[in-house]
Amino acid sequence: MGGEICDKFRAQSERFGTRIFTETVEKVDLSKRPFIISSESKEVEAETVIIATGAVAKRMEFPGSGEAPAGFWNKGISACAVCDGAGPIFRNKPLAVIGGGDSAMEEAVFLTKYASKVYILHRRDEFRASKIMQNRALANPKIEVLWSSAAVEAYGNEKNLLGGLKVKDLKTGKIRDLPVSGLFFAIGHEPASKFLEGQLEMDEDGYIRTTPGTTETSVEGVFAAGDVQDKRWRQAITAAGTGCMAALQAEHFLQEHNIQMGKSD
């Protein structure tokens, strides 16, 4: 379904004259206008640029955590409880969340709407989440915290979906079976912004800073949309909203500078 929507978006944009280049951007020069975007085979000049490179959820690697056929990624293992947690394979089943920050607390609490029980696996004996988020999770009767614990293996069930985890107690070294039908990584995201370091202002985690209420970056004429500038919500609908904002702001920027729309190399 997501692929079909993307195909429709692409077809619509092409009907309005958009030219799409399937290239890997190797370098961007935002020091002056026109900005220069370089790939292996092409160099494009642009009077305005929208950065929408997204962010990738961090994942832990251990036996069974990867892609099929050897692993259970997207077959019970996910990095987005809000996206996947309401799915039928998770309903009324025991689930696990790995993490110790606000995101882990939020995802664990969210999953209690659907799960029979939610385990939070944390490597340490205290959370780094804010007190209010900790209290919300710890007060939920469906949530059990496995302190000083780490998943070391994921195994399947008769349907070739996730059936459970091997969990190691990091203090005693003992390994136990934890039957769960879902595992959600909540250990942060990495924005795809490294190639822009030194050119745009970013926060300590690499998210592009934008002026509140806008998609404007620290460079005039450069806008950022989606997860590369949104470290809180990270949802398709919020990304689409900021994408619309960025497009409108880019259009206004071109009009304000009397730059002809559609003019390109």
From TrEMBL:
Family: Belongs to the class-II pyridine nucleotide-disulfide oxidoreductase family.
Example GO molecular function: thioredoxin-disulfide reductase (NADPH) activity
Domain of life where this protein originates: Eukaryota
This protein's name: thioredoxin-disulfide reductase (NADPH)
Signal peptide stretch: none
Keywords assigned by UniProt, alphabetized: Disulfide bond, FAD, Flavoprotein, NADP, Oxidoreductase, Redox-active center
Alphabetical list of PANTHER family matching this protein: THIOREDOXIN REDUCTASE 1-RELATED-RELATED
Cofactor: FAD
EC number: 1.8.1.9
InterPro entries reported for this sequence: FAD/NAD-bd_sf (IPR036188), FAD/NAD-binding_dom (IPR023753), Ferredoxin-NADP_redctase_2 (IPR050097), Pyr_nucl-diS_OxRdtase_2_AS (IPR008255)
Segments forming domain FAD/NAD(P)-binding: 20-243
Listed Pfam families: Pyr_redox_2
